[in-house]
Write a structure and sequence with these properties.
This protein is 74% helix and 0% strand.
């Protein structure tokens, strides 16, 4: 059987001393700082994304929705003109309205 090196069977204070040295090491503190920085950047990104979504949503409501309503109204008027023309016996030709 091979001889164990490094006190693999020890219990008690040796393990807590190793954990304390690891948790107080420079690389762990750098990792904590990096994680904190990542959280800060994530919060800023979420905030700016929400702001951009608000701007896009309000712009859509102000500019695009009235355009869609007007296009629907124009299509309804064209349909009414075609129905009236077919009732009067005129050939059904698409009516072009000027803007």
């Amino acid at each position: 059987m091979a001889k164990r090196i490094g006190g693999a069977g020890k219990t008690g204070g040796g393990d807590s001393n190793i954990l304390a040295r690891i948790s107080n090491s420079e690389i762990v503190s750098q990792g904590r700082r990096a994680a904190g920085d990542a959280v800060g950047v994530s919060k800023k990104l979420i905030w700016s994304t929400g702001k951009a979504a608000w701007i896009a949503g309000t712009t859509f409501l102000i500019l695009v929705v009235p355009l869609i309503i007007e296009m629907d109204r124009e299509a309804q008027l064209n349909e009414i003109d075609l129905q009236q023309a077919s009732l009067l016996g005129a050939p059904a030709a698409p009516v072009q309205r000027g803007m």
